[in-house]
Amino acid sequence: MHLRAGDVLQRGQGSHDRSATVGALPLGRKVRSRGRRVARRERSTAAGGEGGGAGRGARRRGGLELGAGRTGGSLLRIERYAPSATNRPKPPTKLSLPPRIGLCRLRAHAPPMASSLVSRPHLPPRPVPAATLASTFRARVAAGGLGGLGVAAGVRCQAQAAGDLDSHYMRRCVELARKAAGHTSPNPMVGCVIVRDGRVVGEGFHPKAGQPHAEVFALRDAGDFSENATAYVSLEPCNHYGRTPPCTEALINAKVKEVVVGMTDPNPIVASKGIEKLQGAGIDVRVGVEEALCRRLNEAYIHRMLTGKAFATLRATLSMNGIVTNQIGKGADQSGGYYSQLMKEYDGVIISSDLAKMSTLPVSHEAGANQPQYIIIAQGESSRLHIPSLSKEHASKAIVLADSPVTVEPAGVEVAVLRQVDLDSILQLLAQRGLCSVLVDFREAGESFASLLNDFQEDKLVQKVVLELLPVWLASEGLNNLAFGGRQSFPLKNVEYRDVNGCMLLEGYVDV
């Protein structure tokens, strides 16, 4: 039997009706046109009917007419398929759903989804309004869509979508806050996003100590759109007068309807008082969105508030055979290099007097970087210390900590004589001076400098370790290793590593 593309099969009137029959087809044979099935053989469900579709039990599907035919008929009539405008196949309906809606846990016996899901970027710049997403989803469920999923599944998915939007805006707050890395101490880094009807209408971050806080900049950016909006802020808004007015008053005066907070402020002056003030003004407050990320952002500020000491990170470079070297990896101190970024992020860097005398002081080459404070350890020095790479213009950026009086060149460098030069005293002094974080750079380190780090794990003095492993094997006349830290072994937590220009960089936290 020869069939042409586009033909439709219809049950014939009987085995002897040959007016349009070209041959007999076995049961189950299908006719396809351009890869699309347009008809199929169906078994009769009703007896009788003499017409090829005009008999009893006849049904219509678009331009295809199926007849009951005779029960024993095995021949098919071929007619030209002419689809009308009303029965032309329609493209599948696309259903706009919240991000990650497809990850909702569904019952195992639920039938397949009737509609395709529209994929979305993980962090869309301007997300679809939450109200629109929710209403679309509710309408779909009410219409019996989503394969008959229950209302409970819809509620779970809506809650997950709302949580995803909250996380997105809070991550944006952290991204904004990081723009001021190295500039805000003793204040924390804070970012704020104002959202109204699912659209970002204002953004801001705290640029430096003494400047307005993130909420103030975001509200200014939003203007009148702040009314009935939701404010996302990575740290609890302050409720006290300092160098700037309280942020809680700015939010209340702007008539925001809700505030989403990443974490509470460990500063005892604030410590949930800002949240209570907002709630007392009738503003809904939610706390703890992306809290781990927000705490990581301000880990140094939190540590200083809780301990009264600066957050300390030990940095060293090792060869493949474990020898400490004074050199750093290729490009590490250039713009974009890890060392240059550390110099931007940390408030201060502790170095030995030998390093200060022999090489240039470490600097950051990142755009807009605030160069760190140089803390130079001078133990057992003679009465004079010359720092050739330090200019008079930058003399105020350095402080020499010594165990006896010493004269420093160039003039203008501050000298502090300590009764005992140990890391605990140094970290307390730096915290009192407003430094939240400090990098202990272990280069050109003699025995006196290494002695600062004895028992740093038991005394909880170092919170983080950064090690750079160079692909070289160094010759050494004697032992040269990091033989300090404590009398017992201890693991590092949350260790991360990456390849940097052929070197391996490892970062981990001391388990304290």
Automatic annotation (TrEMBL):
UniProt xrefs under InterPro entries: APOBEC/CMP_deaminase_Zn-bd, CMP_dCMP_dom, Cytidine_deaminase-like, DHFR-like_dom_sf, Eubact_RibD
Q: Does the keyword Zinc apply?
A: yes
GO MF annotations for this entry? Answer: diaminohydroxyphosphoribosylaminopyrimidine deaminase activity; zinc ion binding
- What is the designated name of this protein? Riboflavin biosynthesis protein PYRD, chloroplastic
Q: Where is the CMP/dCMP-type deaminase domain?
A: 164-286
Basic residues composition bias: which ranges?
29-40
Q: What is its EC number?
A: 3.5.4.26
Pathway per its UniProt entry is:
Cofactor biosynthesis; riboflavin biosynthesis; 5-amino-6-(D-ribitylamino)uracil from GTP: step 2/4
Record the organism: Panicum virgatum
Q: Which cofactor does it need?
A: Zn(2+)
The alphabetical list of record keywords is: Hydrolase, Metal-binding, Zinc
Q: Which domain of life is it from?
A: Eukaryota
- Protein role: Monofunctional pyrimidine deaminase involved in the riboflavin biosynthesis pathway. Also has a reductase domain that lacks catalytically essential substrate-binding residues.
A biological process (GO) of this protein is: riboflavin biosynthetic process
Which EC class, in a word? hydrolase
Map out region (Disordered) in residue numbers: 1-70
Write the lineage as a comma-separated list: Eukaryota, Viridiplantae, Streptophyta, Embryophyta, Tracheophyta
